[in-house]
Design a protein that fits this description.
The protein has 6 helices and 9 strands; from the N terminus they run αβββααβαβαββββα. By secondary structure, the chain is an alpha+beta fold. Strands 2-1-5-4-3-8-9 form a 7-stranded mixed β-sheet.
């Protein structure tokens, strides 16, 4: 009987170790990003399955990271359509706009095509970026609704986190971009 008890104890200890690892990983959400912070770099797939690296825009363009909870939801649909309508204004301010959610690039492709979006959607399917930026919304296992502007030097110039059911206002973002020159 001793070998069976030992085996059961080892199995139970293995289960406990796995649980502890998962618990620690789930808690690894950074503090919420703030203006003045250096923007954590990332590589994410866009809706066309191409890699997009934040640091590739350093020295070239300001980057608007428009975090939103989920594709195919009414508030997210409305605000992404507005960004498409304002796309020339963003371009005129030397900015690139990325919508970021935890949906897959497959979902992004279908949604972007359905809505006729002009800006690029990035898939943070593993929730790595929303956690790095402190924008993970655990109750829905997705990202918060937030706007982060990263200036040409890679520094966070603007952050606005809002209620999950409240759409962002492009005018606020455009005004912040104008201040960057």
């Amino acid at each position: 009987m001793a070998p069976r008890s030992l085996s059961k104890r080892k199995r139970n200890q293995s289960i406990i170790n796995i649980y502890e690892e998962v618990t620690v990983a789930a808690q690894e959400v950074a503090k919420e990003i703030a203006a003045g912070d250096m923007a954590p770099d990332f590589i994410l797939k866009d809706q066309d399955q191409k890699d997009v690296t934040l640091s590739s825009f350093k020295g070239k363009k300001n980057v608007v990271l428009a975090f939103y909870p989920l594709d195919w939801s009414p508030v997210c649909e409305g605000e992404n359509k507005c960004m498409t309508n304002d796309f020339p204004k963003f371009e005129g301010l030397n900015a690139v706009v990325f919508g970021i959610s935890t949906d897959s690039f497959f979902s992004h492709k279908a949604w972007a095509t359905h809505l006729g979006l002009k800006h690029t959607l990035l898939a943070d399917f593993n929730r790595e970026v929303v956690k790095k930026y402190g924008l993970y919304f655990e109750p829905l296992n997705c990202g918060k609704r937030a706007t982060v502007i990263v200036d040409k030097n890679g520094k966070v110039a603007y952050v606005k986190v809002q209620e999950i059911k409240v759409a962002r206002d492009d005018n606020d973002i455009l005004e912040a971009l104008k201040k960057l020159g």
